[in-house]
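Long-time lurker, first post.

We've been arguing in lab meeting about whether NAP would sit comfortably in this protein at all. Half the group thinks yes, half thinks no, and nobody has a model to point at. So I'm putting the question to the forum: if I give you the sequence and the SMILES, can you give me back a predicted structure of the complex? Inputs are below. Any interpretation is welcome too.
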Amino acid sequence: MEKILITGATGNVGLSMLKLLADKNFADVEVVAAVRDIERAKSIEGISNCTFCHFEFDEPSSYDKALSGVTKLVLIRPNQVSDVSRYIFPFLARAEAMGVKHIVFVSIVGAERNRIFANHRTENHVKKLSVPTTILRPSLYMQNLSTLHRQDILVHDKINIPAGHGLVNYIDVRDVAEAIVAVLMNPSHEHDSYEITGPEPLDFYQIAKLFSDELGREIKYAKPSTIRFVRQKLLEKKQLLYVFTLSLLYAAARGGKMNYTNDVFKTLTGHDPRSIAEFIKENRECWIRTGNEEVKKTRRRLIRRRK
Ligand SMILES: NC(=O)c1ccc[n+]([C@@H]2O[C@H](COP(=O)([O-])OP(=O)(O)OC[C@H]3O[C@@H](n4cnc5c(N)ncnc54)[C@H](OP(=O)(O)O)[C@@H]3O)[C@@H](O)[C@H]2O)c1
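Top reply:
Settle the argument with this. Predicted structure of the protein with NAP, as tokens:
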């Protein structure tokens, strides 16, 4: 019997994992979602075939109960938990002491090279544990476009990402979840590290065109500077470290360092990853304006004209 514990279980990747594991319904596998608010997690649509346990990285008293009997741990580090020595390492020490047999750590593209990333420090730490670990480094999530960048597209018809003419190979979090499950259920991936990308790198002019074609209105690529992007996201009260990390990744894209594709996802799962065009099509409602947003946009346009 395997018992899988997933942290960050109500987030982008975690939720996709819970849904995928529910669909797959593996025999002799118990799935436990480590969540901060059990009642809220239970009310999320589409989650079944799993149990919930209360867990907070900043609450060490929650560690042992969550880890009890766990054989496999999927470590998703929330962006908010950046002091990894204080919260992630002690949790991993308990996982090791309590007999976890395999850890899959969801890192991020470029983390092995960027010492400033919290995931870099976590990667180095998990490699030193006695527990076999697999590290996955996904490229940027398509879901950033429906979360962090949603308002810019929805209200302003703009993609505000400081990547210049650089290309990015976005991946869908559902594919990240599938890659995690593939490495989690196959011991041959223990001690390996994999970078996973989407099917093709595109620049943001091409991505804006895909949005325009799907939404039936023109979406422009604003090509902001990094400073402008950071300032705007901080005004929107987005978390500093998350915005900073993304800025570094977009700077790498601007320098041509994200312009590649690998076939790791296909090797792990046997099929191609989802394309960004599919993602936009499936989620188009997210960027369709309701009456309220139309009113807001018209009001803004009038104010701009008066100025
Ligand atoms: N965004 C990207 O493009 C990208 C690309 C590759 C890798 N990554 C990596 O992916 C990770 C984030 O994954 P994600 O996007 O799936 O996460 P997410 O959607 O931001 O969700 C964060 C999850 O962590 C939980 N959480 C927050 N604070 C917590 C705490 N103190 N204790 C326990 N749980 C807590 C949240 O629970 P609540 O529901 O209670 O808030 C939520 O389930 C980061 O390590 C990032 O570096 C991101």
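For your lab meeting: The first helix runs from residue 12 to 24. The chain has two domains: 2-138, 140-171+198-259+272-307. Whichever side wins, do check it experimentally.
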